[in-house]
Amino acid sequence: MTVLSPDALEARLREIGAERYHNRHPFHRALHDGALNRMQVQAWALNRYYYQASIPVKDATLLARLPTAELRREWRRRLEDHDGDAPGTGGIARWLKLTDGLGLSRRYVESLEGMLPATGFAVEAYVHFVGERSVLAAIASSLTELFSPTIISERVSGMLRHYNFISEETLAYFAPRLTQAPRDSDFALAYVRANARTPEQQKEVIDALLFKCNVLWSMLDALQHVYMEGHPAPGAFRGDGTPGAFSA
């Protein structure tokens, strides 16, 4: 592999997003197009909660490894975005309002009792990746945020259009992300462009983004397998009163 210019590296990263970001996944298409029933939407929100709740854990892991005050100040904003600066604020609290609005018990959601095993493995792999790989790779793994405004716009417009049990208030999580995600991805992209200077570093950056896309894709694979294709997972949310599951 030869050294890419910063522009060429960015172009490669954007190609990965165009090919592999999870807005292309069949489960997301079904969610956006109104092809899911209420229980399937609940299952998506319930499983996604673990990812949302783990984002500040991931960011705190990276924050402790950042070598300068400038970088730490920048990354602290991400913690506040998701944890909030007071009880009931921040992204996690807004996601719980989404699950509340879908009729899920908050205690049940936070307990993770109905979460798919694959969701847990994927999210924990991401947290471990950020803690164990280089700072450059850890920052590069966040570059899926380059593509999130597109999926947010599709998701919000599609869900409001197709589901009568969804309201703008229910989807309040997403509005701040339309400004937070571009701010964060602009910083991460600038860092990667400036610091991925060798073929090895550039491969590390590319592989990190591929890994993160795989994490998000695999979570939807599991949802599709269980909730669209009908392969039950023991103990997972079913929404029908089955022991070990939750009746919405």
From TrEMBL:
Catalytic activity of the protein: 6-(2-amino-2-carboxyethyl)-7,8-dioxo-1,2,3,4,7,8-hexahydroquinoline-2,4-dicarboxylate + 3 O2 = pyrroloquinoline quinone + 2 H2O2 + 2 H2O + H(+)
Gene label: pqqC
BP term (GO), one: pyrroloquinoline quinone biosynthetic process
EC number in record: 1.3.3.11
Pfam families for this protein: TENA_THI-4
Sorted UniProt keywords: Oxidoreductase, PQQ biosynthesis
Domain named Thiaminase-2/PQQC: residues: 11-221
HAMAP family tied to this protein: PQQ_syn_PqqC (MF_00654)
Function of the protein: Ring cyclization and eight-electron oxidation of 3a-(2-amino-2-carboxyethyl)-4,5-dioxo-4,5,6,7,8,9-hexahydroquinoline-7,9-dicarboxylic-acid to PQQ.
Keyword Oxidoreductase: yes
Keyword Signal: no
Protein name: Pyrroloquinoline-quinone synthase
Pathway(s) of this molecule: Cofactor biosynthesis; pyrroloquinoline quinone biosynthesis
Gene Ontology molecular functions: pyrroloquinoline-quinone synthase activity
Similarity field: Belongs to the PqqC family.
Family matches, as SUPFAM superfamilies: Heme oxygenase-like
PANTHER family attached to this UniProt entry: 4-AMINOBENZOATE SYNTHASE, PQQC-LIKE PROTEIN
